[in-house]
Amino acid sequence: MLEINKDDIFILSDNIFLQKIEELGKYWVFNIETGEHYSFNETSYWILEHIAANLPMKSILRNFIDTFDVDKSQAKDDLDETINKFLEEKIIKRRE
Amino acid sequence: MDSRFENFNVETEFYFQWHITEKCNLRCKHCYHDNYTSVNELNSDGLIYIADKIEATLKRWNKKGTLSLTGGEPFMVKDKVFPLLQHISSLKTIHHFDILTNGSLLDQTVLNKLKEFKKLRRVQLSLESADQNLNDQIRGKGSFETTLSAIRLLKKNDFQVAIMMTISNLNKNEVEPLVNLLKEESVDTFSAERLIPEGMGANLKDEFLTSEELKDIFQRIYSLAMKKDKIRILLYRPLFALLNGNDPTVGAMCSAGTNALTIMHDGTVYPCRRLPISIGNALKDSFYKIWYTSDVLWNIRNSKNIKGKCNNCNFIPLCRGCRAMAYALTGDYLAGDPQCWK
User: Fold this and answer.
1) With an 8 Å Cβ cutoff, are B288 and A34 in contact?
2) DSSP per-residue string spanning A26-78
3) Do residue B292 and residue A33 have CB atoms under 8 angstroms apart?
C-alpha cells in the first residue's frame, strides 16, 4: 500500500465526474471517457469531494476527524486505505 | 419515496429515437417539428460514426439496444436511410429497430430492401381517425388513403405494422372506431400519444384535452387493451399506471433520464423528442458525457425534484408524469404533469 503523506495533494483523474442524490443516499463516480461508473458510500464520496476541492491530505484528515468523530489513528488508516483504492481504480491521481 | 434510478443498472434495455432528417412531405397539425429545412443534417459518414458510438456505449453498459429510426420522413433521405439501416443491422448490441414513417414513400421496391434487415421489428405509421375527412384534416389531404395503402402493402409483405394516434380534442372520440379499423386491417399494435403543444402542435392549444377528458380516453384505451384482441394495445406511457399500478404492462415511467435518448438530424441530443432541451451533440460528445453529466437528466432522475401534484404522488416510481408535457405547458420540465387527473 502506498504511503500517504500529510502534504500530498491528489486531484480527480481526467474525465472523472462526481454525482450524488443525497436524498436517496446514492453516490456515483463516472468516467465520461471510458463509460466506467462506480457506486460509493457517503464516506468515500465525501473524501472524493474533498479531493476535488484540491485540499491537501492534512486538511482532509482534519475535516474527516471532525466530521466522522473518529480518532486520528483510525482516521489516517481509513483515509489511506480509501485513497489507495481510488488510486488503484485511477479515479484520482497525485498532483505533480 | 422511491426511485427507479436507485440502482444505476436497473434498466437492461436502452432506447434511441433517431431523427435522421427534419425533411417531411406532410405538415400534420400536431407535429412536434415546426421547421422542415433540416439545416446541418448529418451526412452518411456522420450517421455511421454515431451508430458506432451507440454500439460502443451499449457494449460498455452491457445493455440491449433498441432503436427507432425516423424523421421528418426518413424515406425523404433514401440515400442515407438504407446504408444506415444496413450498418445498424450489423451492430451486435442492437436487438431490434423500428422505422417510424408516414408511409407515403413506401412501395414494393422499398419494402424489398427493408426485407433484408432481419432486426427490423415493426414499421410504425400514424392515423388519427377511422374517418377519412377527420384524419386528412389533421394529417393532410389524401393521407388516409395513402396510409391505408401502406398498411396493406406492408401486411402483404409480412411486416409487423404499428399505428400511432396523437390524441387531442379533435379526435378524442375516434379511439374505438380507429382500433376497429386497424383490427380489420390486421395491424399488429396500436398506441396513443398525447398532443404536446410544441412545434406545429403549439397552434392546437385550443384542442388540448383537460385532465378529465384524458382520463376518460385513457380508461377507454385501457378497456380496449384488456380485451386482449389480436391487435396489441400498448400502454407504455406515463399516467396509464394510474389505471392499474399492479400490472407492469400498464403504464411506464417517463424514459427521460432513465433508459432513452433522442438524436436529432444535426446530432443534437434531447432527453426525449418531446422535451427539446439540448443536452449535447452525438457527433461531438460521448454518450457517457451526456448521460452522466447532464443537469437536466440528473434533475429529472431525482424524483424529489418533481414538483406539483407529482411530488407526493404514490405512483411516482412508476410514472413521474410526462416531463415534456410539463415543459411545453409551463416552461418547467420539473413541474407536475398538467394533464394528470389524480
Assistant:
1) yes
2) EEEEEETTT--EEEE-HHHHHHHHHHHTT-BHHHHHHHHHHHHT--HHHHHHH
3) no
Distance of CA B220 to the CA centre of its chain: 21
**Cis check: omega of the bond before B251, within 30 degrees of 0:** no
Q: Which residues of chain B have pLDDT under 70?
A: 1-11
Which pTM was predicted?
0.93
pLDDT at A74: 93
Residue B7 pLDDT: 41
Cβ neighbours of residue B200 under 8 Å, at least 6 residues apart?
B27, B28, B29, B30, B31, B32, B33, B34
- Among the partner-chain residues A17, A23, A30, the one whose CB lies closest to the CB of B302 is A23
Dihedral class, residue B180 (left if φ above 0, else alpha if ψ from -120 to 50, else beta): alpha
| Interface membership of B294 toward A (CB under 8 Å) | no
B281, with CB counted inside 10 A (0-12, 13-18, 19+), is: middle
| Separation between Cα atoms, residue B115 and residue B242, nearest integer Å | 39
Ranges of H-type helices in B35-142: 44-61, 78-90, 108-114, 132-139
Could you report the per-residue pLDDT of B165-186, keeping only the tens digit for each?
999 999 999 999 999 999 999 9
Q: Which three three-digit cell numbers place residue A89?
A: 481504480
| pLDDT tens figures, B44-83 | 999 999 999 999 999 999 999 999 999 999 999 999 999 9
Q: Is B218 helix (H, G, I), strand (E, B) or coil?
A: helix
Looking at chain B, which residue has its C-alpha nearest residue A22?
B302
Instruction: For A29, name the nearest residue in chain B, comparing CA atoms only.
Output: B292
Question: Which residues lie closer than 8 Å to B312 by C-beta, 6 or more apart?
Answer: none
* C-alpha cell read off for B227: 380485451
Amino acid at A39: S
